[in-house]
User: Fold these one by one.
Assistant:
Number 1:
Amino acid sequence: MAEERTGKRRLAPEDIYEIALVSDAQISPDGQRVAFVRTVLDRERNDYRSSIWLVDVAGGEPVRFTTADARDSFPRWSPRGDRLAFLSNRSGKDQVWLISLGGGEAQQLTRFPEPVTHFAWSPDGTTLAVVTKAETAEPPEKEPEPETDVVRITRIRYRSDGTPGFLDEKRSHIWCVPVDGGRPWQVTSGDFDESWPAWSPSGHEIAFVSNRTPDREYNTVSEIWAVRASGGEPRPVATGDAAYFFKPVWSPDGTVLAFTGHREPFAGSSRNHQLWAVAAGGGEPASLTSALDRSVEDEVLTDTAASSKPGPIWAPDGRWIYTQVSDQGNVHLYRIPAGGGEPQLVVGGRRRVVDFSLSADGSLIACTVSEPLNPCDVIVCSADGSGERRLTRVNEEFFATVELSEPEEVWLPSASEDRRPIHAWIMKPIGFREGVRYPLVLEIHGGPHAMYGNVYFHEFQLLAAQGYAVLYTNPRGSQGYGQQFLSCTRGAWGEADMPDLMGAVDAVIERGYIDPSRLGVTGGSYGGFMTNWVIGHTDRFKAAVTQRCVSNLASFYGTSDIGFHFGEHEIGGTPWEQPELYRRLSPLTYAPQMKTPLLILHSEQDYRCPIEQAEQLYVWLKKLGRTVEFVRFPDESHGLSRSGKPKHRVERLQHILRWFAEYL
Ligand SMILES: CSCC[C@H](NC=O)C(=O)N[C@@H](CO)C(=O)O
C-alpha cells in the first residue's frame, strides 16, 4: 500500500548496510576544508571500515582522502594545516599515521606495542602527545608466552564492558612523539590511568585527566593534572575527592583551564555535567553553567551513529568556550562567556550536534549533525551560528528509496499524582490509514540518565515499517530536563518512572488509532530493567522484548563492572545495608506476576549488565511455565545494538520483529 502510494519500499533490518555514518567533522585551521570520518558496515567481512574524507567549505563533492582497507579515525589537522594525523588499525592495532595534504601515501608515525587511544598536536606542530598503555615505544622482538592460563584477580575493577577478557595491569600514559623523527619519550608514569592530553598554548605543559587519589581503586574520582611536556612530576590543577572532571582545554593566553564535570563523583551520570574554569596554576574551580540546569555533554541515545570525542573548545579571542548542551531531546552547540554570563545558543534546532570544531581564527564552525530522518551530515556555519550550510548529503540517495515515519514530538501527562507532562515522540506506522487501529510498541531508554531525542533510530523506523505505532518517552530520570528530574529516580527505580510511561501509553491510546489489546514493550539496559519491571506490574502488554537487561540488583552489584559504585549510588546503599530495598526494586521479585510473553536478548560478553541477569530471569519464568525465549549473542558486549558485529546487529533486529509478529 505504502509502496503503491509513494513508490518507496519499506525499511528492512539489513538496511544498516546501506547507511553510511559520518562523524568527527574537523575544519582546517584556514577554514577552507573539513576532514571527517565516513564509516560503513562491511557485509562480506562482517566488520566496519572507515576512511577520512575531505569536503570544501565553499561546496562541492566530498572526496575520499585515505584509501586503505582499514579503520581510519580521529583526523586532526596540524597547526599549519599542511597535514593530518589520524588513528588507523592498518598495522593491526590503532596507531598514529600522518598524511600530507600535498599528496602522497600516509606514513605510520607510532609503533607502540599497545593501541593509541587519543592524541593531540603541540601548538608548534613538532610533537604529538599520545595516550597508550604501552610501556615501550617499539614492540618487543617477541611477545613473552604467558606461563599459565589461570587468572589471578586482586583488584575490584577487573573487567570493563567492551574489553574482552580481564583488565590487565598496564596503565594508560602520555607519551610525546616527535613528528619529524626522533625518539618518543614517556611523560607520565605510575599506577594511574591518564587520558585527554591538552597542550598549553606555550607548549611547555600538558594538562590531562587522571585519578591520583589514594583510594582510586574504589572511588570514581576524575581529576585535572598538568605536567611539563618534557616529563617530571605532575602538578594538581583541579583535584581531590570531590573532583569528577573531564576534557580540559586551555584559554588562548594560557592562564585558565576549562573542563567539564561535577563535584559528586559517586553520583556519576545522575548529575548534570557543568563547564568549569580554574586558574591554570590551580585553585578553586568555578562553574560557568550552574544557572543552565543542563548537562554540557551529549546524552542522546541512538543505534545509528559513529563515535567521536568532542570536548569544549576555547575561541581564539578568549571570550567564549564552545560546548554541547543536552536539552529536551536535542543536543545543541552553545558558547559560554569565559568570564561568566548568559550562555548563547549557536547551533540549535530539532537535532543532535554530534561533534564540532573551529577554524584557527574562530570565524567558522563545522559540525556533524543528526536529525530524526537523517542520521548524519556535516554542516558549516559562522561563529555565532549564522549562515549555516550543509556540506554533505551522505545518505540522501538511499533514503529517497525507503519510506520513513516522521516522529511527532509531544508532551503527554504522567499517570503519577502530579500529572507532570512527559516529553515523548509518536511514530505512526508506515501506510497509516484513518479509522484503522494499530498495535503500539513502547520503547524505554536506558541509563536511566540518558535521553531519547531528535535523531534517527533504525530500530524504531523498522517497527514503524512493520506496521506498529512506536512511542518513546523521556520519563523521570532522563537527561535534558534539569537536575531535579534527572536524579529523582534514586532509590525508586521503576516506582518513580513507570507512571510516566503508562500515562504516555494511555494518552496515545486516547488518540483513537491504537488497539489497546495489542501493546508491546521493549528497551535495553536500564530500559531492559524497566521492561521487566513493567511486565511484573501490569498485564496490559501482550508481548515484550527485554534487551541487555537487569533483573536482580543484588547480583548486579557484584557482577557488573559498575555495580559497586553506580548500583550503590542509584539504589541508595549496598545490598548488605539495604537488603529489603534491593529485593523490592529487583524485577525478579515480581517474576511470579509476569505473564507477558517475553523474549530475552543478551550478549555473552556483556560486563555492564552481565548475562547472569538474563539467565536468572529466563529460568525463573521457564519454571513458572511462562512463554519465554532466550537469545544469546556470542562475543558481543553491552554495545551490541550500536557497535556489534553487523550480522549480529541484523539478527538482533530480526528477533525483535519476529517476536512482535508472533505475539503482538
Ligand atoms: C541498569 S544498569 C546499567 C545501565 C546502563 N547505564 C550505564 O552504563 C545503561 O542503561 N546503558 C544504556 C545507556 O547507555 C544502554 O542503552 O546501554
Number 2:
Amino acid sequence: MGKAKFKPADDVKPEVEEAEEVEEQRDGGEVAEEEEEEKDKSFEELGLDPRLIRALSKKGIEKPTPIQQTAIPYILEGKDVVARAKTGSGKTLAYLLPLLQKLFSDSGRKRKPAPCAFVLVPSRELCQQVYTEVSWLIELCRVQLKAVQLTSSMPVSDMRNALAGLPEILVTTPACIPKCFADGVLDPAAISESLEILVLDEADLLLSYGYEDNLRSVTSIVPRRCQCLLMSATTSSDVEKLKKLILHNPVVLTLQEGSDKEEPVPSNVQQFWISCSAQDKLLHILALLKLEVVQKKVLIFINTIDMGFKLKLFLEKFGIKTAILNGELPQNSRLHILEQFNAGLFDYLIATDDNNQTKEKEEVKGDDNKESKKNKRRFKPKLDAEFGVVRGIDFKKVHTVINYDMPQSVTGYIHRIGRTGRAYSSGSSVSLVSPGEMEGFEEIKSFLAGEEDKDSDIITPFPLLTENAVESLRYRAEDVAKSVTKISIRESRAQDLRNEIINSEKLKSHFEANPRDLDLLKHDKLLSKTAPAPHLRDIPEYLVDAKTQEASKMVKLARAAMGNNRRSGGGGNSKKKRSRKGGDPLKTFNANGSKRGRGGGGVGQKKDGKGSSDGSANKKQKTV
Ligand SMILES: Nc1ncnc2c1ncn2[C@@H]1O[C@H](COP(=O)(O)OP(=O)(O)OP(=O)(O)O)[C@@H](O)[C@H]1O
C-alpha cells in the first residue's frame, strides 16, 4: 500500500475534533504493483473475523482491494469515514465487512426495536445488489443476523412483514424512509434508540437525484453515537454537503492511483473515442459490433428510451440481438434483465442511465408527425424515480462500455465507464462523439487529464476500425436505418413494455418458487416480426478490409484466451491470476504487421478520432 498522508480537514463541524485526512496513493504499472504486493495487507492482518474471511474465500475473494485495506481498520475502530475510491474498487465490501463484524459481537444481545444498521443507496437496483451481497455474507458466516431491503414501491403490508422479524440491517433508498415514517412502518424514536451504523453508499449521487429532503428527515433522528460512513466514487459539492450534514470528526480516505492528480476512472479501463456525425453513429456501432472489434460483453449507453429502441431494431436487422434496460420497465423485469446479463445469457445490453424525461419531452416537441404525436399521447410511460443503472450497479464481466450518446456530465461519464474494469478485471470504453457533443467531450477529457496535464490523451482514438471497414457497411446501414421509423420505434417500445409487464407478473407469482424457470424469459427477443435478411446477418468477407479482419480475428482470439467465448455462468471471481495485458488486442494490436504493439501504432485512426486507412495516424496508444 502507498504511504498515508495525514492532514487536517478544514470543514468539519466546529465542535468536533480535527479530522484526519488520509490520502492513499498507489503507483500504477506492473513493477510498482509487484513491489507493493508484499506490503499489501491480508484480510487477517486487517483484523477481520475468520468467519468473514472464510465466506470471502468461498466467493473467490482472497485479497483486500486498496480501499478495503485502508477503510476496514478505521471502520472497525469505530471512526466516521468518508471513503472516495474509483468505481469498481470494492467499496461495498469495504463497509459491509466491518459493519457485519461489529454486529457479530452484538448478535447474542436482546433484539432492538429498529434496525441498528441502515445502508442508504440511490436506486432500487443497488438496493437489491447490496441486499444480496450482505445476505450471502450472513448465510456463509452462519450468524444470527437478519437483513431486509425496503423500497418505496412495496405495499405497506410487505414492509411490515419484512420488519416484523426485527432485522439488524436495513438496506433502502432515502425516499423510502419518510414513506415508512408516514405509514407507521418505522418509528423515528425507535431508530434514534437503535441506530448504530449509518452508511450512505454512492454518496455523490444521493443528492443529485433529489434525495436531500429525504436525507434530512433521516439525519434529524440519527443519534450522536451513531457511526456514519460515506462512500463515493467522485468528489463533489454534494459529497461535501452530506459530509457536513451527517458526519462527526470523519477520517477522509481518498484513494488515488498513479500520480498526484485525480484519476476517477480505473487505470485498467482503456478509454477510446470515435469522431462521427450524429447520423453516422448507427453505422459506427454496427461496424464495432458486426465486425467484432470490441470485446463482449458490451454495455451500450443511450440518452433516451426511444433511441434505445431505434438501436435495438436497427441492430436486429443485422442479426445482432440486444436487450434493453430502462426506467419504464417494471422493477422485477429490470432486476431479471440485470441477473441474466450478469449470468452471461446475452452479450449486448442497451441502457439508459437515468430518467431523462426532459430530453424525451424535447423530442416530442420537435416531432411533426401527427400519427406519431397521437401515439405519444396514448403511450405515456411512467418512469421509476428510483431507477438507476449506472448508480453503483456491479455488472459482471462487462468488457466494453460504448457511449452511443455522450453522457450529460463528467460524473455521468465516470459512472458509465466504471461499469467495466471492476475490481481486478480489465475493460475498455468507446465513446461515439458527434460535433454537437464535442464541447462536453472536451470537458470530460480535460477533467480526466487534470489541471497540470491538459494535453495528455487519456481518451485515445479507437485503433481497431479503419475508415474502409466502416464505409464498406455504409450502404447497408443507411438502407436499414431508413426502415426503422418513429412509428415502429414507438410500437416496439409499447410492445416491449407490455411483454415485460407480463414477464414481471409471471416473475413475481410463479418464478419466485421456480428460479430455474427464470431462464425461459429471454429479454433479448427480437422485436421486429421479420427475421434478419441473410445478406444483412452475415457480412461477406470481401466487404471488410484486411486490417479490420485481422483486428476482428485478434479480438476473437483474445476472447477465447480469456475463456469468454462460451456463455459463462454468473459473477464469481476467478481464482486464477491472468496476465493483465495478455490477450487483449487493444493493448497488443499493431496494424503494421507485428501483433505485439509497443504502446502505439494502432490501426487507422487519426488523433481527432476519425478513421484513416493507412494505420499510421494513431501514434499515441494508451498503455495500461
Ligand atoms: N477484494 C476483492 N477481490 C476481488 N474482487 C472483489 C474484491 N472486493 C470486491 N470485489 C468485487 O469487485 C466488484 C466491484 O465491487 P463494488 O461493487 O463494491 O465496487 P464499487 O467501488 O462500489 O464500485 P461503484 O462505485 O461503481 O459502485 C464486485 O463484483 C465485487 O464482488
